[in-house]
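Risk register update: the risk of archive-format incompatibility is retired. Evidence:
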Amino acid sequence: MPVEFLTDEQAARYGAFAGAPSRVELERFFFLDDADRALIESKRRQHNRLGFAVMLTCVRFVGVFPEDPVAVPTQVVDYLAEQLAIEDASVLKAYGERENTRLGHMRELRQVQGYRDFAEVEGELREWVDARAWTTGDGPKALFDAAASWLRERRVLLPGVSTLARLVASVREAANQRLWDTLCGVLSVGQRAVLDSLLQVAPGARVSELDRLRRGPVRVSGPAMTRALERAAEIAALGVGELDVSGVPPRRLAELSRYGVDGKASLLRRHSDTRRLATLLATAVHLTTRAVDDALDLLDVLIATKLLARAERETTREKVKTLPRVERASAKLAAAVQVLIETTSEQIDTSTGEVFPPAASLVEAVWERIEAVVPRRELAAAIAAIGELTPPLDSDADQAWRAQLVTRFATVRPFLELLTSVVDFGATPEGLPVLKALRSLPGLLGRKKVAPAEIDTELLVGSWRRLVLSAPHAEPGTVDWKAYTFCVLEQFHRMLRRREIFARNSSKWGDPRAKLLSDAAWEKARPMVLASLNLPATAGEHLAARAELLHATYTEVAERLPANSQVHFGEDGRLHLAALEPEPEPASLVELRQAVNDLLPRVDLPEVLLEVLAWTGADTAFTSLTGGEARLADLDTTIAALLVAHGCNVGYTPVIGSAEPLTRDRLSHVDQTYLRHATYQAANAALITAQQSIDLASAWGGGLVASVDGMRFVVPVPSVYARPNTKYFGRRGGATWLNMINDQAAGLGGKVVAGTPRDSLYVLDVLYDRDGGRRPEMIVTDTSSYSDIVFGLLTLAGYAYAPQLADLPDQKMWRIDPRADYGPFTDAARGRVDLGRIERHWEDTLRIIGSIHTGAVRAYDVIRMLSRDGRATPLGDAIAHYGRIAKTLHILRMADEPGYRRQIKAQANLQEGRHALARKIFHGKNGQLYQNYQEGMEDQIGALGLVLNAIVLFNTRYMDAALTQLRTDGFDVREEDVARLSPFVRHHINMMGRYSFQLPELPGGLRPLNPAP
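Archived output:
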């Protein structure tokens, strides 16, 4: 290899064409503008004009002047010749006959275009590479490519490949060493010894202390909660959580900690002192907050599923068991009361109106009549049964399950004291009384008598008051402190989820308000945020324009309603839309689809992956956690095998082979050190870029429409990060892969979330954490992703939000002017948007969306903060009112434009097609996700997402080639049919069995198409 971290093929592609440029690249780099034409037209002969154009555009594209202009791809020459009206592009051959002409043109272009030599900017480039390496931690190949792009953008002629590679390698190594020295420098001698001791294996133990501490909780139980808190306390006792590491970029610290969390202790021991200690420090800092996150995640699941939900289930089960007794007793009581009413009430003859006195006036007579129906002994037994089996009249619906909850006190007692001592809780004014009560609980445990004055009786809401203050077994003047404990825990759990109570030493359960941009940070970021999101500093004119747009849209749509057969209004004035009829498939589409599918080559999945990696160089995105520059030989083969193992959910066994890249040890090493969320994202970005350059993908869409939807996975192993949902997971827990796909069929990213939460909580986070591709403008989701607050935040963030709104008649439409007449929409528009409320909170609204936009806070935390138990805060209500304008415009457009509805439906169908293909790929182990930890889930689903995009790219490129072949053969290829082809076909790809990882020679870059039948 000419350079250690570059393969021979990568080095050969440097400063040269790697195949023919795509149409997009031709239009971007080889289009001749007026200034270009002015330079070219000064040349007299056609071959000189064409040769000069080749020199001019090639240096712009590859960064160097071509030594042999005749050798550039014919597509470039033809494209330039067409612009210059040169009919015969072969005249370029005459340009190469005189070397002096080419050299003269080079000198002219250097002077006129301002091209410089590398030596002039080498110092500036070193500073730029150093800053990027210090802040991002990019691998050497990524830095090398970025440096080459930096040079081309500044019109600097590329140096030799070895020169640039040595510069990148040396600067990156210096930046890494500075990182390790900086972190090591904040440690005292004692702290260094403590960190080094983490790599030791204690006598009688099987793993190092680091291995033990980095294992989070798996099972959901009281003892597991105790162990999780003890682990958090033990990590905090290392004393490194409070060290000031703010001088290190967060991304670099995160990468070092990821290596420490995933790497083997034996490997860490082999590193130099500074690197080892820096890695251990970053890992300990990460684990300090991560252990608290894990403990609170477990507490959330424990309270929600093992305590509250189980108490409700057991109460319901008990009610079902006692239901026959209650029914029999109730029937007897009803019969007795009926007799009582009939015998003691005046009787009226309905035909004559005559009134008769009661049938019996004496008690003895009444009882005689009652006992004729129900014996007194049975009636007394029925009353006793009803008293035993039903709650008192002054109780609420929750008393039964809350009483059942109190019997599970043994589950929570062991960890109550640890909870408040290990986790540094804080609270808002609303959550402060609950937090104070929580901190007081350890002082109540085990006492025989607790007086009402020792507890906060203001917290005793509903049936808790009876259970705490009037417990049958409690002595007069005392309270049931076990019931009080659960009363506090129930409210603590709710406040924790709403972040009214938060953990200062946690990243996931911390205070989102503290993460919002502070006054100084907000003032600094404010101009950039407002400019990038096109939002005004003051709301007046902006809201007036939105109001005018809403009014005009109502008016225009109402005027077109008589001609719109898709819309009708119910008797209550609610809007109804007729179901869209499926678009018929013309015979030409059916024939084209069959013809294209017949031409697709038959391949095994490993060949697809190897071929796509070779096309895109995506395998170079997989860099080692160790930071080493040397790459393993045939790393692409090992990566492809691991993608099959994880993406197909089949494990190592089917992909293990005798060749070195496929041995179990090699697979395990690469899995641990090369495959992780960041490298999956980088590799996926390369595939997305390749997809958008294919003409067929452009026929499907421009990449500006995207959809976000969830795919469910059963998690049959014990895990804190799985949640129950009988509809999707049966009796087990599960997780959801919330993923995004654009209209070019490229998966842009995703997020794994526990259980089946509302998608609306995570949509913005998925959008802001996409792997690559163009930023979408329109976002399609299903109804479950909808809320007015989400509508507002997405609109503020610059997205056109288009949920499907399956429950459209139940959706309230909104207006601003209550007196406006919108014809048939007048009754449907029964809500009123309060512009004054929006304007009063405008500055806080900008700060909220600015904090999300800059990544200071997760949108998930903000949405939870803005909505409390289904009720919006004043700020959340203001954002919801802003969202209702966009929501109503969306509904009006759905009513007015069937094409808009079809676009939404088509994008949703596209995502369903991707999920169907994902199910076929992820076929092993019954399609269930066997991962205990969230990182494991994200990594495996990351592999699935990458395999999905690889298959889509493979299909798209070969389908594009098939269309070219069909056009050449005279097949009637209609553009409207091309736009309806699907890249999710899979009949030609084998995904099962033992796999072979041999890629055949592909001289033309593609394998031959399948012979037509």
